Structure formats: C-alpha cells, structure tokens
Amino acid sequence: MAELFSDDWMKAYMEEWNKEPEIVDALAKINFSSNIAYGFVGDEQPKGILVVENGKAMSAGAYKDEEMNWDLRASPENWNTWLEKGLGMASLGMAYVGGKLKFKTGDYGAMVKDPRMAGPFVKSFTVMGRVST
After folding, report:
1. Do 107 and 121 meet the contact criterion of CB atoms below 8 Å apart?
2. Of 4, 12, 57, 77, which has the maximum CB count within 10 A?
3. pLDDT digits (tens, 9 = 90+) for 41-52
C-alpha cells in the first residue's frame, strides 16, 4: 500500500490507467496529451504527476516542478471518498461547484463540455480507486 499521490502510488495509477480502454482509446481518438498533477487543497505544490501522450500514460511519479496542464486539488477526505465510490458526471459538477474539487490549473468548463474528454475524466476516478492506499 502506498500513500496517495506518492511516487509508488502514481506509478501504480499509471499502470491502471493504461489498462482502461475507456480512457486510453477515447483520449487517443482526440490526440489528448497533457501533464496532469494531483494534490491537496492548501499545499503549495501538487504531490504527483501523470504524463499522458495520445491517451496513454507514459510516465508518472512524485511531482518535481514539471510543467503541468492540469492541477487537480481536493482534501484528503474528498479524494478518499471518490476513490471508494467513484465519481459520476452529476457528482463531478457538484464537487466542482461546491469547491470540493479545484482545478488550480486547467479549464474545467472546456473539459466538461466536451464528452470526449469528460467521460474519460470521470472514468479516471474509478481507475484511481483500483490503486491501494
């Protein structure tokens, strides 16, 4: 078991991400490439980063000042809830509007309006739940 967003946890997440065709194949169709950082509200920097090229996670680990396109933040309690229960489109909207999920970097509005991105984004929370913490 690894600490949430630690180097080991992020590497395990990358493996799970790449096993999920609803993420990899869907994002490959739109040539989605991004550096996605994850962390906790109130921290200066994110804890972990996932580097995605054409839908596939190419590297992952502890965040070390890499450039990022997305920086997702929430409290440890909220992350743990989403890891246990997943997140749907409705609960994603409620989490964002209610301030439980913060996009420190990245355009939530553009992502959620594009089903080619929104579906895989929501699925990524289910995939996170497959990683032991």
Report:
1. no
2. 57
3. 999 999 999 999
